[in-house]
């Protein structure tokens, strides 16, 4: 198996690193944006129990169940220069949105949203109201309570959200193909590059890239399961009420 | 006074409605008594501004604050019943979080609070390593680190052992007297309230069913402790403040002198010079009248052949309660008021009535420090 590494040319390695680097940058930037967007959104959803919440959650979770081709098709329509968004983008930036890195970024925000949103919503739902009351009565305003108590209390959920969002963006193929195409250094992310190499029957290169994705994905998922909250939750629960240990 | 408080609030719940209004002088403690489910905690939460649906306001001096919005009074803190702390922070960081919000005012020093509550050795621990009583003391310290003017305490003595309880009680006394902190103290234990509270609210089903001084609550006819005898406390009782005059080592008897000069012997050891608060149960108080003097106004002679050590001269001030089985009599003993519970039979046989002179007999072993 190890001889596959030795048969690759320098050009192949360049291609591998460039497409992997692009994927990693796309995954990182979209996950950071998603964390920022999903934090208030998850807080809003977690503190409510209304039809609006369930409706919004169903909409935001659509990318989990829709075929990537369906999602990609609609994004293609949305990013088209003739569409409102595409036109607006062109007026503002004088570049086309479709088949650009920005198209990939916007698309990632859509298809990875549930992977970042869901862990945060569950964590915020489990954040007991009592802790907010305690912070409140001690004199903290809602901003101080959120940043001083809620965020540090749920740091494991943020790690999980980041890992899942990153890994999922790294692995997406269908949507990326539809809205990004295959432009080296711009939209040729690792999954596209693997597909291309398979089509060209360069199996060794495809194999190296596939191994890279598998290894990185395992590394990303490890903390998710290590931190899945079981250990942490356990010690939290024990400390919730007084009197069981005295 | 600028730091006197008054409030009125209303909180509607699906099952009941909490309505309370009262006032509170600077450095005084308002006790709130009631069975669990009476709405005491809901009332406290509403007063602390934690119930969005609560209506009403809080007045400090002439300043009016609403209870639930941004304009609420900030210099108050609620110390929760279950000793709630932030589980992801160490004890030290829990305390530090609270002191972030303390105003720049004179208050009991943080080190003094730590010492009074005896929590120095716990500071580095995790919340999950604490016992119930430890958590409770740290939660109280956390509340105090915010330097409150109004301290709301929900069952502060729950989960505490006797030593810790005394420490907390003493500290609350210091906060009241030296730092003029006003308090609302919720408890289902009347004895705790006797120690600290000047005024008392008794709550039942969300409503205030009695409001008055602690003394009135224990000895007035309108008080639920008398009217609904056995419902709130096992038996009516009075509490007397006394000074320890001497201790007789041989018999293990302490001699106490009450505020009004009555001498009482108790069979527990006390340190001479200490001030104590003792509880006298109505069921432990017997009455004697003299045959010869029956009906007349002169004092009843002391009983010679009896083991009971305390024989006080008294006059029946009032008949507080009467049914076929038992009668509660309020007896005035030179300024101190004591309640005696006698059977209906004795009441009739002895022809007890208002203004009748009696000997009040109390066993030394039945008097306990609160």
Q: Can you offer a commentary on this structure?
A:
The complex is a heterodimer of chains A (246) and B (370). Chain A is mainly alpha-helical. Chain A has helices spanning 3-6, 10-46, 51-60, 62-65, 68-79, 84-93, 101-111, 113-126, 129-138, 142-153, 155-171, 174-180, 190-199, 203-226, 230-238. Chain B is an alpha+beta fold and 370 residues long. Chain B is built from nine helices and 20 strands. A six-stranded mixed beta sheet of chain B has the order 6-7-8-3-9-10, sandwiched between helices. In chain B, strand 9 (199-204) and strand 10 (207-213) form a beta hairpin. In chain B, helix 2 runs parallel beside helix 4. Chain B is globular and about 70 Å long. The model of chain B has no long low-confidence stretch (mean pLDDT 90). Chains A and B meet through helix 9, helix 10 and helix 15 of A and strand 6 and helix 4 of B.
The gist of it:
The complex is a heterodimer of chains A (246) and B (370). Chain A is mainly alpha-helical and 246 residues long.
Computed Rg of chain B: 23 Å
Mean pLDDT across the residues of chain B is: 90
Give the tally of β-strands of chain B.
20
Indicate the radius of gyration of chain A in whole angstroms.
21 Å
DSSP helical segment count of chain B: 9
Largest interface in this structure: A-B, 26 and 36 residues
Percent of residues of chain B in beta strands? 25-35%
Biggest pleated-sheet summary of chain B = 6 strands, mixed
Q: State the order of secondary-structure elements of chain B, H for helix, E for strand.
A: EEEHEEEHHHEHEHEEHHEEEEEEEEHEE
Biggest β-sheet description of chain A:
none
Instruction: Give the N-terminus to C-terminus distance of chain A in angstroms.
Output: 60 Å
Give helix % range of chain B: 10-25%
């Amino acid at each position: 198996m190890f001889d596959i590494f030795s048969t690759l040319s320098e050009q192949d390695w360049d291609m591998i690193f460039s497409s992997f680097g692009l994927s990693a940058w796309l995954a990182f930037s979209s996950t950071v944006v998603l964390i920022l967007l999903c934090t208030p959104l998850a807080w809003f959803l977690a503190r409510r129990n209304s039809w609006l919440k369930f409706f919004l959650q169903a909409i935001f979770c659509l990318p989990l169940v829709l075929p990537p081709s369906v999602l990609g098709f609609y994004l293609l329509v949305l990013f088209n220069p003739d569409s409102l968004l595409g036109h607006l983008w062109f007026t503002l930036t004088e570049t086309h949105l479709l088949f650009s890195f920005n198209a990939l970024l916007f698309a990632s925000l859509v298809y990875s949203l549930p992977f970042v949103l869901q862990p945060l919503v569950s964590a915020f739902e489990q954040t007991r109201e009592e802790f907010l009351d305690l912070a409140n009565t001690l004199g903290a305003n809602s901003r101080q309570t959120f940043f001083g108590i809620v965020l540090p209390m749920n740091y494991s959920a943020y790690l999980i959200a980041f890992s899942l969002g990153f890994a999922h963006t790294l692995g997406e193929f269908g949507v990326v193909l539809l809205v990004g195409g295959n432009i080296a250094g711009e939209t040729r992310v690792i999954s596209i590059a693997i597909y291309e190499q398979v089509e060209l029957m360069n199996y060794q290169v495809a194999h190296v890239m596939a191994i890279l994705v598998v290894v990185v994905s395992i590394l990303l998922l490890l903390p998710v399961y290590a931190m899945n909250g079981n250990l942490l939750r356990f010690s939290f629960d024990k400390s919730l009420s007084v009197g069981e240990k005295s | 006074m600028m730091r006197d408080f008054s409030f009125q609030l209303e909180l509607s719940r699906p099952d009941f409605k909490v309505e309370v209004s009262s006032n509170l002088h600077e450095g005084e403690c308002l006790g709130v008594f009631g069975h669990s489910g009476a709405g005491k905690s809901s009332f406290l939460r509403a007063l602390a501004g934690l119930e969005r649906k609560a209506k009403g306001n809080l007045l400090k001096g002439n300043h009016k604050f609403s209870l639930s919005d941004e304009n609420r009074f900030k210099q108050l803190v609620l110390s929760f019943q279950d000793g709630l702390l932030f589980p992801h922070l160490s004890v030290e960081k829990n305390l530090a979080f609270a002191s972030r919000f303390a105003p720049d005012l004179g208050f009991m020093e943080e080190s003094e609070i730590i010492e009074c509550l005896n929590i120095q050795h716990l500071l580095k621990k995790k919340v999950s390593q604490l016992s119930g009583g430890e958590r409770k003391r740290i939660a109280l310290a956390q509340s105090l680190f915010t330097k409150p003017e109004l301290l709301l305490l929900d069952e502060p003595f729950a989960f505490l052992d006797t030593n810790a309880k005394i420490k907390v009680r003493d500290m609350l006394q210091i906060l009241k007297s030296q730092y003029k902190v006003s308090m609302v103290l919720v408890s289902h234990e009347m004895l705790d309230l006797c120690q600290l509270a000047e005024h008392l609210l008794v709550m039942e089903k969300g409503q205030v069913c009695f409001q008055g001084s602690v003394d009135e609550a224990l000895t007035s006819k309108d008080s639920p402790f008398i009217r609904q005898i056995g419902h709130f406390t096992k038996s009516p009782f009075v509490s007397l403040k006394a000074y320890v005059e001497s201790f007789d080592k041989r018999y293990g008897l302490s001699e106490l002198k009450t505020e009004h000069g009555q001498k009482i012997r108790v069979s527990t050891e006390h340190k001479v010079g200490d001030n104590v608060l003792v509880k006298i149960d109505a069921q432990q108080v017997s009455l004697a009248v003299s045959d010869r003097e029956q009906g007349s106004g002169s004092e009843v002679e002391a009983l010679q052949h009896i083991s009971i050590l305390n024989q006080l001269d008294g006059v029946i001030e009032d008949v507080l309660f009467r049914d076929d089985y038992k009668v509660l009599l309020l007896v005035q003993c030179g300024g101190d008021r004591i309640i005696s519970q006698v059977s209906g039979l004795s009441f009739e046989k002895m022809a007890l009535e208002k203004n009748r002179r009696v000997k009040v007999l109390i066993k030394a072993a039945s008097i306990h420090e609160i």
